[in-house]
Amino acid sequence: MEMRKPNPDAIARCIRKARTIAVVSHVNPDGDTLGSATAMRLILQKMGKEAALFCDGKIPDQLAFLPGAETFRVPTGAEGPFDLMLAVDVSDVKRMGCCALLMERSAKTAQIDHHPTNPLFMETNSVDGDAPATCMMIREQMKTLGVEMDRDIAVCLYTGISTDTGNYAFSCTNAKAFRLTGELMEHHLPLAELNRILFRVKSREQIRLLGKALQSLTFRGKGRIAVMKLTLRDFAACGALSEHADTIVNYGMDTQGTEMAVLARESEDGNVKFSLRAKEPRQVDEIAAAFGGGGHPQASGITMEGTLDEAVEKVVCAMEKYLDETGRQE
Ligand code: 5GP
Ligand code: MN
Asked: Which residue has its alpha carbon closest to ligand 1 atom 10?
């Protein structure tokens, strides 16, 4: 069986052989997948390649500043053919959404990812479950490809590293993340401006939606699980989009006494999308996997069919059972 390991040499061989490359980000795109893809586009252009960016869904307004973000397209099936398809920060095939159709339009497929649950679904896989962000792997990839850092690439990589580490605060943050950020600073990284855009500025829609979510906050599992829900009606009342809910789960997590937090939101396609979070040593990845989701030990997600209340009940009951069982072991 193929092992999960970083393999920049194998990716470099794929890239060198290709002329046209489709770079793919995951659905509900975040700073790491978009930072990785936009950096990759700049890197490939420096190598004289033709790179096209794809994502199934809208690029969040907050991340529209990324160089090349305006070139992302949702594939229709008419694109290509490509010599290579390269997925970045995509933990499984489902997370590509409709971009999966590009696999048939590409002679070769490859991926760079840092999710420990990645089932190695491409022909060539470079997967490092210990990397705090895919953007950190992109830096290593640049070295293998012999491409120099510049300010635009630094902006892309900083976006992925800072967002996936919770602005250098999550336990995944390591010395390498700081060292690499030091290197990015040497390329005139606009740190204060990026921090404002990425971590402070909220739209009015986001603030209104936060109010709705906080109103819905309840505590389960003897007070150890914070639960928030957002209905389509809530989104409509706030004039908000799904992306505006992306960091709200943290308020549940930041409430004293909380060990695990859930934010469940109804989405336009009729599914319920869950954001699950846990404080170490608690873990949510296996709970997410049990419902067809996945992610990291302390931050996972699920997309599930069913009504909001029923779906929440199923997931929260599984979390309560987990806390009862792990609680007994201590
Ligand atoms: P978030 O709650 O921020 O949307 O996602 C947290 C983590 O869970 C991310 O690393 C993401 O890759 C993963 N994740 C989110 N939603 C899903 C999903 O529906 N399926 C899977 N497999 N992973 C998800
Ligand atoms: Mn990531």
From this structure: 295
List, in order, residues 6 or more apart from 233 with CB less than 8 Å away: none
- Residue 246: what are its φ and ψ, rounded to 5°? -60, -30
DSSP at 24: E
Tell me the domains of the chain and their CATH numbers: 8-200 (3.90.1640.10), 204-326 (3.10.310.30)
Whether residue 275 contacts residue 243, with contact meaning beta carbons closer than 8 Å, is answered with no
Going by pLDDT thresholds of 50, 70 and 90, the confidence category of residue 328 is: low
Please choose from 56, 91, 242, 243 the residue to mutate so as to test ligand 1's pocket, defined by most ligand atoms within 8 A of CB: 91
List residues near ligand 1 (CB under 6 A).
Answer: 28, 91-92, 95, 275, 293-296, 299-303
| pLDDT tens, residue by residue, 158-167 | 999 999 999 9
* pTM attached to this predicted model: 0.84
Measured in degrees and rounded to the nearest 5, phi and psi for residue 32 equal -75, -45
